[in-house]
């Protein structure tokens, strides 16, 4: 395998580890010392493991939102119907409740109030 097919193969593993763990900086020194033959630089387009993980997390986040949206879209038509049905049922119940309350007020409360006047 050549360097071109696997660019990470020629990068110093100590350097890579230091970058991954955010330890790399001005004062970082390769444990292999000055005789280290590997590169202490990242090739263009190289994706660090920690960035790859971040990207995957982001992807998972997006796919979860996607999934919810898709589920919602799938439910869409029936959900509207259910909402309308439940609303009408609720309204019917409220009207009935009001009627019962009015009846109760008229037949019981009013005579009682008049009697205690
Ligand atoms: Zn090195």
Characterization of the model:
It is a single chain. With 117 residues, the chain is an all-alpha fold. It folds into two domains: 1-46, no CATH class; 48-117. Helices cover 64% and strands 0% of the residues. It contains two helices and no strands. The longest helix is centred in the last third of the chain and has 67 residues, at 49-115. It is rod-shaped. The protein starts with 12 loop residues before the first helix and ends with a helix. The mean pLDDT is 79. Bound molecules: zinc ion. Zinc ion is lined by residues 12, 14-15, 30, 32, 36, 38, 40.
Q: Average pLDDT value?
A: 79
The unreliable regions are none
Q: Largest sheet, described in full? A: none
Number of separate structural domains: 2
> Looking at the structure, what is the overall shape?
rod-shaped
Q: Report the count of strand segments.
A: 0
Q: H/E order of the elements?
A: HH
**Ends apart, CA distance between termini:** 105 Å
Number of contiguous helices? 2
Q: Give the fraction of residues assigned to helices.
A: 55-70%
> Over the alpha carbons, how many angstroms does the gyration radius reach?
36 Å
Query: What class do helices, strands and sheet pairing give?
Result: mainly alpha
Determine the strand fraction and express it as a percent band: under 5%
Q: What small ligands are held by the chains?
A: zinc ion
InterPro entries: ZC3H15/TMA46_C, Znf_CCCH
GO molecular function, one term: zinc ion binding
GO cellular component, one term: cytosol
Family: Belongs to the ZC3H15/TMA46 family.
């Amino acid at each position: 395998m050549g360097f071109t097919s696997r660019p990470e193969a020629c990068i110093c593993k100590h350097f890579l580890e230091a970058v991954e763990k955010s330890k790399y900086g001005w004062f970082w020194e390769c444990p292999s010392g000055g005789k280290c033959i590997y590169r202490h630089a990242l090739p263009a387009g190289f994706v660090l493991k920690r960035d790859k993980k971040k990207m995957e997390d982001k992807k998972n986040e997006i796919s979860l939102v996607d999934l919810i949206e898709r589920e919602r879209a799938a439910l869409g038509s029936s959900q509207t119907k259910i909402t309308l049905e439940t609303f009408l049922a609720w309204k019917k119940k409220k009207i009935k409740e009001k009627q019962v309350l009015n009846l109760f007020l008229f037949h019981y409360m009013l005579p009682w109030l008049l009697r205690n006047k």
